[in-house]
Amino acid sequence: MMKYAKQQLIKYRQSPLLVDQDLDLQNLIDERFSDLIINARLVHVQGTIRMLANEEIVMAVTVKADLTLPSSRSLEPVDWSTEVQIHETYVTTAEELSKFEEDEAVFVLENDSLDIDQVVLDNIIAVLPSQILTAAEEEGESLPAGKDWQVISEADFAVQQDESQEDAAKEEKTLDPRLSKLDDFFK
């Protein structure tokens, strides 16, 4: 667990704290994001943490993570790797946030400490793909189906919609001869 109290970081005003460490985030993942990540084989953090003269803490690190995620289609395990650049600033009070632009990554320290594990995991979660498929699913393996249901692609759905509209148009054109008198009634 990598966590630094604000008091510990004061000594890194002159020269930054160099970070080059592997993190074990599995327990944290199991607690918070077990539905999004199955396993975190390797999470490596490398970069610097520095406290500025105005008590702001600046963290600039690169995170490399090798994860196992569930397929968004079948929930089968899929290996996925990412590299995330994190450049965040931490302040001690919420009032200090007003000094920064809205698009800057600035956060208030919780309990006067910087929890690197939480920061890294939150940034990894932010870059997870919305859809991830196994190799077989990417190659076009059939979609899941069950009794009286099946998953279809958007393209197949569009084709079905077009066909059903054509069928409705044909039905509209062919009128039952017994109802032809009613057709005249509505005109």
Low-confidence stretches: none
Q: Which word captures the global form?
A: elongated
Distance between the termini: 79 Å
The counted number of beta strands is 9
For this structure, the quaternary state is single chain
Given the structure, what is the number of helices? 6
Relative strand content = 25-35%
Rg for CA atoms: 28 Å
Taking strands numbered 1, 2, ... along the chain, how are they ordered across the largest sheet? Answer: 2-3-4-5-6
Along the chain, the helix and strand elements come as EHEHEEEEEHHEEHH
Largest sheet: 5 strands, mixed
**Class based on secondary structure composition and strand pairing:** alpha+beta
Average predicted confidence as pLDDT: 86
DSSP helix fraction: 25-40%
